[in-house]
Amino acid sequence: LATPDTWEVALSTGKDKKETWERLITEGALGGLALLRNLRNMKEAGVSEKAIFAGLNNMNTERILPFRFISAAKYAPQWEAQIEPVMLKCLEGKDKLPGKTALVVDGSGSMFGTAISAKSEIDRFEAATALAILVREICERCAVVVFSNNASLVPARRGFALRDALYSQAERSGTNTQNGIMKAAQEGYD
After folding, report:
1. How far apart are CA 170 and CA 33, in angstroms?
2. What CA–CA distances, in Å, run from 13 to 19, 27, 42, 52?
3. Alpha-carbon distance 145 to 186, whole Å?
4. pLDDT tens series, the chain, 190 aa
5. Cα distances (angstroms) measured from residue 40 to each of 25, 28, 35, 36, 74
6. What DSSP designation does 155 have?
């Protein structure tokens, strides 16, 4: 059997990492998820930003959900400006939920610091912010509320700005779900 040309195989042969990453990106042999998950490794190997940005711009985003981009930005924050448009691109063309949708996000202390699974790199709140980014993009109109002991309406942001707004308004204290639901009801939704 022929040896597959994957990033794992290519890097395990001991060849120059920078050249290997750049070749895989240039040839289109690196899948979108592999690209996102290895941004930190590419940076450490000295891969040129030009090659990385070309890979991001050309990647197939069809099956990639926003939490993958949030993880990528967590480990390569210097490239958020290049990652964000690709993240939003993966949500383009989706059918919109009609009317106004309310999304109520738990910002209590239990949402922070605990990974969503044994192999995950993101915690519950990061997963919630990814869901908020997704919902914001697939709704005609959307109100996002974050709650803990209190509840507040999050400014109408998109992408990483929505993530940042959620973080800045999360109290990280108790869990009063009723306050979140009441605040969402005040904003009105279909």
Report:
1. 29
2. 13, 18, 17, 22
3. 11
4. 777 777 788 788 878 899 999 999 999 989 999 999 999 999 999 999 999 999 999 999 988 888 899 999 999 999 999 999 999 988 888 899 999 999 999 999 999 999 999 988 899 999 999 999 999 999 999 999 999 999 999 999 999 999 999 999 999 999 999 999 999 999 989 8
5. 15, 19, 10, 9, 10
6. P
